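Data deposition worksheet. Section B asks for the primary sequence of the deposited chain exactly as it was used as input, without tags or linkers unless they were present during the calculation. Section C holds the resulting structure in token form. Section D is free text for depositor observations; keep each observation to a single sentence. Incomplete worksheets are returned to the depositor.
Section A, Depositor: J.P.
Section B:
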Amino acid sequence: MRILVPLILVGGLCLAACEEEIVDDGVPDWDARTSGVLVAGAAGGTLDLPVGTPLGGYTARDRSLGDESGPDTRDSDYRTDFIPSAGWQTRIPADVLYLENGEDAAAIVRFDLIYSFDGLTEALGEELSRRFDRDMTDSVFTLASHSHSSYGPFTKSTVLFFGGDFFRQEIFDRLVNQLADLAEQAFVARTEAAIGLGIDPNFDPIGEDQVFGDRRSENDHLHGPAGEPTGAGHKDARATLLRVDSVDGDPIAALFAFGIHGTVLGGGNPLVSTDAPGHISTLLQQRHGGPRWIFAQGAAGDVSPRGNHSGFAQLESVAENAVEGLVALYEATEVAAGEVELEPVQRYVRQGRDIRVTRNGAVDLHYMEWDPSWADDPYRPDLQVWDQGCDGFVSPDCAIRSPLDEFWAQHGAVLCGEPDIDIALFGLDVPLPMYASCLDVDKGYSLFRIAFRGYIDSRDDYPLPLPESRTAMLGALGIGSVPVTVLGEGGTQDEHVVFAFAPGEATTLWTQFLRHRARAEKGAERTVVLAYAMDHEGYLLTADDWLSAGYEPAIVWWGPLQGEYLLEQLLDVVELAHTPVVEDPAWPDFPTSTWYPDWVTPIVEPDPSPDAGTPLEALPDYLFVRDDVRPAQVQPNPTVERIQGIARFTFQGSDPATGLVSVELQREDETDGWVPVTTPRGDAVSDALPDILVTYTPDPLQGTDEEPDPVRTHLYHAEWQAVQTWGGLQDVSALPLGRYRLVASGGSRDPEDTAYPFDSLPWAQHSEPFEVTPAALDLDVSLDGTVATLRLAYSAAPRGYRLLHQTSGPNSPTPLVSGPGGIQVLVASESGDVSEEFVEVTGVDDETGTTVVVDLVSLAPESGSSWSFTVDDGHGNTATATGVLP
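Section C:
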């Protein structure tokens, strides 16, 4: 007892002292993150949205303010002020990867659209919560491929109306439902899984640029996150790949990422297309099969697609250049099964004039506080962007002067940094390269009123600050532990990986700084940046990069600090996904949504189209086709040559509002009759792929004052070039000969149904059969002594649109691609008495042909004798020419 009393006394004193030292910082006691067995599922398909829906990506397509003329004078029930789309080169793919560990779940939803939209992300979370019977409201991560030839009017972001036309509720609803259907398929397909991350740091090396290359020279003077010089051509050359297999080794998904803009086809293109990003994933899917190949964007904001040629052939060329390295990365990536931690995090952050950039406490970059007097008496900045003594903004050592008083717009500004724009009446009147072209958002109201009258008719329809500029949605997904394989480093190591979902066009330096700072400041050693995700805040640039001017700063609402502010906010979200506890990302007072006006847009009632599928007797007076070359008749030509030939088929179809028509290629089989032509993966060759182009013509093109919305005839024109290269370009001349046909099908509106989404009645029509015949060859013979030099090429395809060869253009003569037995040359005398067949001859290729040399010495030719040369490329494509021995 004598000992116990002092112990109790001391213990009591210690307890009291300890209680006094405990400080309540208000941080909740978060639950520990738990692990569980990983299950995963994936699904993919294509979106079915009406042709006529405007394409997103280019303001030039706006009929009030742009300079693109469009395919013709057509109207569309789905447009407000943009040029309607007029067909499709491909359908638009979408994919879902679903991950779950028993406690938490994540649905990664990827689509080949121009950008993401936080309203879409939220709507998918709500819909999947209903379908999955679990809370998915903070567990959906949307990713866009940034195709500039995909559907535009699904966002309520006011500024982006000039990128893809005014919001359409019907398009938005269709999009949500179709993406949710894919997510449900992935959910149903889930199975116990193994996972791994692969990284190729030098996937497309700087200077080689076979897939993508730097397009932004204005920032060549800037340094990277470790202080290293960048210089001309600097880009983020890496590719990452998340590999997901079943525990039995069956492939589930490969989510791969690098940066590449979807801008090959340009603003003048009226056809829906996946552009470059989608062609890469499609080629992987169809040629290599295996997992669901899912493309995600990386640092694409300041890089452009490369490849060879232009147009549709360039899209295929980029894909050919990319797939070998991606397959190698996939095969090298090790996976492991078992329990994983999974932490999905979403957070809205506020934006406005009060944003700050601190660089982990090293700086305090901010704008001046708004003074209401500036509304009537515009502020006059000091024009001092950099600290005193700095040698201009081209020096990497320049420190930004704060506060940044040059950006004085109350509610933001856009179009800054563009040297060719002069909008003095609507600008900030700051005569510096990075500010001279800024369009004050307040003054931009009149432009929106011109373009979108009927929806924006008064200041009440143009709330300031614009809703999309008030907040930004950020996301991160932590997965641990994951085996990480880095090519060139040897072996793998288990790491906690965080995927950072960036809400906009992540540029190279922004991406590299985010990865660097996540490691240095947050302890997140392995951060994978996925861009064009969740929301869209324009180009994401560091402050120094924005101040370097150029095109990219034009699409930013809150000036030079917005991009880096969002970077620092995303760092905090990355940290939440990396900690060992499960925090509430909205704590303590982050917003939980973005408010948008409740725009009411009409639902389109389709024409009944009773004649859909009825054969046309003659071509209409006007028919839109991709190159203005009108077909000679409704049906394909009776014979179509390999490579040069194009089968063309015109048919009546259904109103686009009932869904896209389908066009499939079939071949006559001696045993099974007409069967689909398929890719190596087994999918039908159809309008979903780049093989078959479909253009659309409404008749009449537009209404009149008396009848603004007439009942139309809906005409479609399908083209198929006789090429099949899904197995590789070595098959360009090896398409099986025989009889083929094109089969069109769809659904016309049931006239008895007058309520959306409208029931449909199926229809189908096939073209007349046509015979695929051997390709035409050009052959020129020259003789020097007994040596014959043969100049060979597949004849040019004047209207060809497919990639035939990496060095020769789609409309140029093409080098020969020989069959397994090589090129065969039969040489015969004029009389036919003397002949010899040269087999397995090897040719030498250049850009437009192949040169073959054979020696006739064994034939003992006489001077002045005439000889015929018949060449077979090994696939049955032949040509004959004669030569006279000198």
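Section D:
The longest strand covers residues 471-486.
Residues 1-22 have pLDDT under 50 and may be disordered.
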